[in-house]
Every structure is written in C-alpha cells, then in structure tokens.
Amino acid sequence: MSTALTQAPATTTPQTRTDRRRWAVLAVVLFAAVLDLLDATITNIAAPTIATDLHGGDALVQWLGAGYALAMGVLLVIGGRLGDKFGRRRLFLTGLTGFTLASVACGLATGPASVIGFRLLQGAFGALVIPQGFGILGAVFPPNEIGKAFGVFAPCLGLSAISGPVLAGFLIDSFGWRSMFLINIALGGLTIALAARLLPRDAGDRTVTVDVPGSGLLAATMFGLLHGLIDGSGHGWTPVPILSLTAGTLLFALFCLRQRSAAGPLIEPSLLKNRGFTSGLILGLVFNAAVAGLLLVLSLFLQDGLHRTPTQTSLGLAPVAAGIILASIAAHRLMARLGRTLILIGLLLTLTGTLSLLVLVHATSPTAWTLLAPVFVIGLGLGSCFGTLYEVTLGDIGPKESGSASGALSAVAQLANSIGAAAITTVYFHTAGGPASAAVHSLATVAVGTLACCALVRLLPRRARPRHH
Question: What is the spatial distance between Cα 400 and Cα 391, in angstroms, rounded to a whole number?
C-alpha cells in the first residue's frame, strides 16, 4: 500500500483555528450590520402599506422614515462609549436582543403611536450594536489584516441594499407588512446565538466617561425639530408646532454649551474650529438629508403615482444600489488620486440623475422602466460620495481627534436621514396637483440641496486621510 494512502489526515493547527474564528466573528458582525441596514430601509418600501393599514396618514409615513434614524443618530456615539465602559460583547448582545424584541413589537403593533415607538426602540438598540462591531473586529484582527476584513463590508452591504428591499417587497405582497418585522425572530435569534458563542469577552473600562446629559439634550433637540416640522405640515402652523421648533432650537443651543464643558463631549470642541471638518460635517448633513428624502419620495411616487406593488417598487429602486456598488469600487481606487474632486463628480452625477427624473416626471407620462437610467445615475453619484466624503473630511484630523470625528460624522449622517425623510416628504405631501406634481417639487428641493453641497466642496481638505495597512 502506498505511503500516500497510509498517511494520517493533517491536523488543524492552532493558527488555522484562530483564523477561522476571526472570520466567523466577522460574519457575525457583518450579519448584524446587514440587519440594521435592512430595517433602516425597509420602511421606504412598506410605509404606504403600513400607513393605510394602521390609518396613520402622511404623518405615519414621515415618522416611519425618520424615527429609526433619529434614535440611531442620537445614540450612536454614546453607544460606542458604553461599549468601551461596560464591554463590547455585553453591549453587542444587549443591543441585538433589544433590537430583535423591538422588531417583533413592530410586527405586532396595533396603531400608529405604537409602531412609531417601537421603531424608535429599534433604532436605539441598533445604536448599541453597530459601534461594538467595529471595535470587536479591531480587537480580533491583527493590523495587517484589518483592512481585508473591512473590505468585505462594502460589497456585502451593497448586495444587501439590493436584496433587502426586494425581500421586503416580496414579504409585504405575500404575507403582509408585519412579516418583514417578524422575520427578525429567526434572523435576530440566529445572530444572538452565534454572537454569544463566538464573540470574545472583554471587561471594559469603568473609567470611560459617558456624556448622558449631552445625549439627552441632542435627543430632545431632534425630537422637538422633527415633531414641529411634521405636526406643522400636517395640521397647520398652530402654536404647538411653532413652540416645538422653538424648543428644539433652544435645546440645540444648550447642547452646544454642554459640549464646551463636558468631560467626555460627543463632539470635541476643537473639531469645530477645523474648517475642513466643519465643512464636511455640513455637507454630509445636507447631502444625506437630500438623499434620504429622495429615496423615500421615489418609493412613494412609484406606489402612489405609478401604482406599483411593493415588490415592483423595490425592483424599480434596485439600480440605485447597483450604481452605489459599482461607483464604490471605482472610488476606492480613485480616492487617493482625485481627493475632493471625486466628491464633486459624485454630487454632479446625483444632480444629473435628479434633474433627469424631474424632467421625465414633469414632461412625460413616465413608466417604471423609463426611470431606471436616471435612478442608476443617482446610484453612481451616491457611491462616489458616501465613503469618499467620510475619508476626505477626516483628511486634516489628528490621531487624537479621529475617534470623536468619526463618531460625529456617523451620527450626523443618521440624523440627516431623519431630517431629510421628514423635510422632503413634507414637500411631497403638501404639494397640490397629484403625485407627479408632488414628485417634481420634491426633486427640485433635492436638486437645490445637492447644488448647495457642490459649493462646499472647495472648503474640504484636498486629499483623504492616508490609509494605514
């Protein structure tokens, strides 16, 4: 008998087992990020159906889009600090369990107030999960492999951005809107079980400072502004929405004062003295708000104006995600060479796609097919901007400020999503003349915001922050 046939099977080495465990941890973190992405975007497709079933009207559509992002944005930075303080594994499991239970509660909601409240809880628990994932990956992957691990995120999230809304549309058409929340019993439960088994234990650092008053002021600020905007547009500008907007403005002033004196501020005061970072923060706020409103309005127009089903609507918006994936891959290669010029290219592509949609809707009787090309161009613009804007805005930031700067950018992006969902849909719902006229005015608003962003590009740092491998 030959030697080859009598050899014992190779034994798995400790290094191989360690590598496998690292990639298993990455899979858990990535799946949690996918769950967050799906639940952040599914109401773009489902909002009209939910509002009709629960008799919530236009205000419910607006809150479904804004509530999740509001809670996520307010608590994202403090969620990261809590993980540093009490342990990332503990916060990851706590957040994921709460997220799953809140998803089930959304699926069982009996009225507009309850589904909005549970959406806020979903976003709040999601804000505990997402910051821990990146910290956990940084702890289990060596520096020379962390870039490869993070490189898996963009394509996986991109594919999820396409398949998630399609799955949501199928579930709504086949089993009703509640099923897209209740499916998280299985998805969330599986992720919790794997996380409990695979994630490394860490004790945390009890000396870490968490600015709870600052987060409370920010939450009250955003709630006051959003409530005033939505209530005023829906029920008239009575004293209640005016007082709500006034209170939100005053609370924001208190939040700014708090950041100057807090021991662990959510935004380091020195960052706001950096022109490049402040310009990027403002540009990100306006651009993300415009994009969030644009995507929600497109979904509403396809369903209200063109009478598409949720599944057909999700397929009609799939070119956005396809464009984002393709442009993100190209932007990764071009960022070092083009810097902030790449952001301008992305903004101009987004503007071109938006204006093309405006002309099509205004001058023709569009079908879902005729909208595919401009929707794809918008996706190319978004993919050119998203990651590039983040990296370029951090171009002049020192190492000691990078953590606060990154957290601030992520939080502002989420808060912008809530503002945009409320503001652009306010234009849509309160334009006379039917869905086509409403879409034209909304697209014009998005175009103005995108054009304003173009003017800010020259104030950004010229180049992205150097990548360390």
Answer: 16
The structure tokens listed for 237 are: 């500008």
pLDDT above 60 for 7: no
Cα(419)–Cα(407) distance, integer angstroms: 18
Q: How far is CA 82 from the centre of its chain?
A: 20
Is 354 within 8 Å of 432 (Cβ atoms)?
Answer: no
Nearest to residue 198, comparing CAs of 17, 30, 25, 34? 25
Please report, as a single letter, which amino acid is at residue 318.
Answer: A
464: left (phi over 0), alpha (psi -120 to 50) or beta: beta
Which tokens hold the place of 31? 């799946």
Contact 125, 98 (CB under 8 A): yes
Select from 264, 302, 238, 298 the least CA-distant residue to 425.
298
Q: Tell me which of 142-156, 162-176, 238-252 is least confident.
A: 142-156
pLDDT in tens, 82-109: 888 899 999 999 999 999 999 999 999 9
What is the rounded distance in angstroms from the CA atom of residue 458 to the CA atom of residue 428? 31
Q: What would the pLDDT profile of 385-420 be if each residue is shown by its tens digit?
A: 887 888 888 888 877 777 678 778 888 888 888 888
Separation between Cα atoms, residue 407 and residue 411, nearest integer Å:
6
Q: Which amino acid is at 447?
A: A
Distance CA 465, CA 50 (A): 43
